[in-house]
Amino acid sequence: MPVAGLDEWVARLLAESLSAWRVAGAVRRDARGALLVMVAGKELRITRAAPGLPFRWMVDDGERARTASSVTGLLRHVRTVVDPAYRQVRLRIAPLPLALP
Amino acid sequence: MRVSPADRIPVAVLTGFLGSGKTTLLARLLRHPDFSRTAVIINEFGEVGLDHDLVEASEESFVTLQTGCLCCTVRGDLVLTLEDILRRRDERSVTAFERVVIETSGLADPAPILHALMGDTSLAQRLAIAGVVTTVDAVNGTATLERYPESVKQVAVADRLVLTKTDLLAGPEDRSGIASRLSRLNGEASILEASFGAIEPARLFDTGADALGSGARSPIVPPRPDSDHAHEAHPHRHDQEIAYFAIVRDTPIRAVALTLLLEALAEHCGGDLLRLKGLVNIAESPDRPAVVHGVQHVFHPPAWLDRWPSDDRRTRLVFIVRDIPRSWVDALLAAIEAEVDEVAKRL
Asked: Is the pTM of this model over 0.80?
């Protein structure tokens, strides 16, 4: 791991996430390489941010564009839009950061 | 007070449904020489506690009692109680106990108790979780598991399951029936038997010696998955949507990838992640593996072993979950690793 490129893994993660969240929808790639997440009439367009920007991903739902600095941030944005039952956890959960020995 | 991992005091959780034999087991354990110098916290539910009267502690062991259910209302009391007995130990006003056993009430969900132990920074620096032992009545266990979801959760989070009252079983087929039910709920836990509470303590808890032989007491370490490769190919489904599976990686994982994974699991899985136990080969720390474990949305700060406990240096993460597909966890970790690798190559 990883054997595929990042874009392939993100596409797979999004498809698996819809299934895990029990949200009916689909994930596909458009002609320009953007990932499209289609759920109940909504379409999220996910693209890589241009080099040099302080974030890595852009998520556009047609009304609002959000940015994310990591795959986990991207996943949070997608779930916020597609899963009405999702409540974001704002609590810091780890009492200590991961400190190397 | 900060102590080295080797000096952390092991704390074990003894749980099990009402009448399953927890107190009988504990009473026998405390009479064993290996279990002297044990502090016992008994959590009884109700106005009047009896269990502590049923546990005859030696002079070197002592018992403290909490009424009310730790898992739902008085979790903070557990932290306060532990802080209090640690302070008294430091002041030498009590015996210098070498371990702590928490006996839960029969209706308790053990997960919040583990949260309390893992989520408090000062306690996490002084205590190490030595495991969860769950007693199951061999005669009534099957019916209890059918009727009471609390009992299912007690079994699901256990490191060791103790079948009690086996002397009352009609025949070996009855034992295999309850044992197979327990294996379906939690195939990672070993199943032991106790009759009238008689059992060898070393089989239940780490009785002082480090189970890994690493010299550092650590949180719970998952079993080696090569004894059960079926988990990797076929995540086990269980009744009430509880499943367990293992994620294994041959190559090291970068520290930041592990941090992102744990945060994402906590954020997206919440209460459906019943338990995570893992031994992780961190790329930046090749000789000292990290031990991680979490319960629901709370994760213990990773602990570092002094060395690998065996020649097997693979990362092994064991999940006990409700309605979380293994394929999602696999995809999440793979995507995080791919992104971290991509970023690292650009630096």
From this structure: no
